[in-house]
Amino acid sequence: MRIAIYKYGVGNIHSVASALRALGAQPMVLEEPGEDIGEYDALILPGVGNYGAAVRRLQGTRDTIVDYVRSGGSVLGICLGMQLLYEESEEAPGRGLGLLQGRVVRLDAPKLPHIGWTRVYKEGESRLLEGVGQGEYFYFVHSYAVTRPGPEARAYAEYEGNRFAALVEKPPIYGTQFHPERSGPPGRRVLKNFIKELKA
Prior knowledge:
The protein has helices at residues 13-22, 51-58, 62-70, 80-83, 184-199, and strands at 2-6, 26-30, 42-45, 74-78, 88-89, 103-106, 114-122, 136-142, 144-145, 153-159, 162-170, 173-176. The protein is an alpha/beta fold and 200 residues long.
């Protein structure tokens, strides 16, 4: 599988690439998706960074990414990358990709960001969580999340009374608020399942 990782000014790119490589995929870091994006089996939007800076970077490539997905290309957004799949965020002004309907909001908690291992609970069928136990721990680093997702939410987590979408699926659109590349065996299983979906 040839998987493009979009380097749009956020961190954690190399750990995502290493995790994919360990699973037999061929990740390629792209400075900017171009006309050749259709040659890749999937596009990953990694995520450690600021929403405002990310949407500014996306301005010139938004249509390319949206067209890629609408033509059947798969996309996986991780953390901030998942938030960018939605329409907007309270973190900063600017338009997300709008591939999913909804708004990202700041968690109502005395201590932010939410950092650490948190249980994730499946809600309905999930292709990416196939083989992952109910209530398994995944690693999170974020202050914002989608607290009122649509039917694309297939798993949720809670922090300080905030219930939010932990994983979304609307094939070919996928997203995780947690970091699968930093979540040990359960995270590797999520990435493995994503690669399996690309082969289907």
